[in-house]
């Protein structure tokens, strides 16, 4: 059985909505950092940024050939929506949710879990680095 990759993501928004960014880190099965994402996404709400960070992280994991993936993020909303415990009522989040469902089907196995912010420091750091850089 293929070993599990871990994708940790975070979205940041200064103002809600406001200037926003995403951070993601993909860890290979040995726990080594295989890829990072740190970029501005323009104006967005925090939830929109969280979704876009998850999408970017999962796209990177797919590109690296990951088969089994565990998505870890500090957004309980996104995780609970992925578990179908919460409905996606916000029309602006629905396209992001649809994209995440499409991505998750491309993995042999997929799990999502909400982690405390303290256990998501690297992704948070990448998101904040993008916001702190001057806009392109």
Describe the structure.
There is one protein chain. The chain is an alpha/beta fold and 136 residues long. The chain has a single domain, classed as Ribonuclease H-like superfamily/Ribonuclease H (Nucleotidyltransferase, domain 5). The chain contains 4 helices and 5 strands; from the N terminus they run βββαβααβα. β2 and β3 form a beta hairpin. α1 packs parallel to α3. The chain starts with a strand and ends with a helix. The model has no long low-confidence stretch (mean pLDDT 96).
Find the structural class using helix and strand composition: alpha/beta
Q: What is the level 1 CATH name?
A: Alpha Beta
Q: What percent strand?
A: 25-35%
Helix content: 25-40%
Superfamily (CATH H level) name: Ribonuclease H-like superfamily/Ribonuclease H
The arrangement of helices and strands along the chain is EEEHEHHEH
- First and last CA, distance: 43 Å
Inertia-based shape: globular
What's the main sheet like?
5 strands, mixed
Short description:
This protein is α/β, with parallel strands linked by helices and 136 residues long.
């Amino acid at each position: 059985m293929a070993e599990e990759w871990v994708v940790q993501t975070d979205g940041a928004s200064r103002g809600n909505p406001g200037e926003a960014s995403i951070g993601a880190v993909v860890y290979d099965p040995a726990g080594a950092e295989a890829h990072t994402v740190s970029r501005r996404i323009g104006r967005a709400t925090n939830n929109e940024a969280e979704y876009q960070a998850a999408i970017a992280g999962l796209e990177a994991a797919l590109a690296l050939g990951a088969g089994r993936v565990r998505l870890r993020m500090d957004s309980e909303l996104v995780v609970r929506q992925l578990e179908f415990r919460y409905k996606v009522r916000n029309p602006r989040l629905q396209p992001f949710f649809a994209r995440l469902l499409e991505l998750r089907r491309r993995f042999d196995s997929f799990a999502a879990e909400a982690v405390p912010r303290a256990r998501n420091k690297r992704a948070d750091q990448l998101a904040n680095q993008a916001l702190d850089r001057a806009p392109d």
